[in-house]
Amino acid sequence: QVQLVESGGGLVQAGGSLRLSCAASGSIFSFNVMGWYRQAPGKQRELVATATSGGTTNYADSVKGRFTISRDNAKSTVSLQMNSLEPEDTAIYYCNSIVPFGALKGEYWGQGTQVTVSS
Asked: Residue 104 to residues 53, 64, 73, 110, 117: CA-CA distances in angstroms?
């Protein structure tokens, strides 16, 4: 079973920064596509950023230039550095992992961590 545990959420003022981390276990992390998604109240879950096993990154237009995703394959962690936070970034942030093959092939989610940005 793949487990994802997020940390680092909290309350911050607009313009501030937060760093989210996700620790993964149960699969060969280096092969997985890792990502961060978020869900604001009353809205659908949306992609924030992804990072492939080869290091290719992808960002939602709304966070480009402000957020940075990074992964440490040796430590099986993925992080999301969030700068210049805006009230619109308020949401529950979820770590996501896609295991591409093997007995654990599939998509997995963490439990989520709350990020609240005050104006």
From this structure: 16, 32, 18, 16, 36
